[in-house]
Predict the structure.
Amino acid sequence: MNGVIKMAKEHQINYVKPNMTALHGRIGREIFETILNTPKPDLTELNRRSDEVESKILAARKARQK
């Protein structure tokens, strides 16, 4: 078998992260203001519940080992 074997190349789609700094004018400023003015979420309830579930899981494991 002489010659060059050409392999079929799969169709590939490359996605890129949008560049927010490339937005011009009012829309770019509005997006940045929204991001900067969004309050941080209050995770105290979520952290309390996760600690509660973690302690239940550890207690169940400990009870199984006995």
In short: The mean pLDDT is 83. Residues 20-65 form one domain. The helical segments are 25-37, 44-65. Residues 44-65 form the longest helix (22 residues).
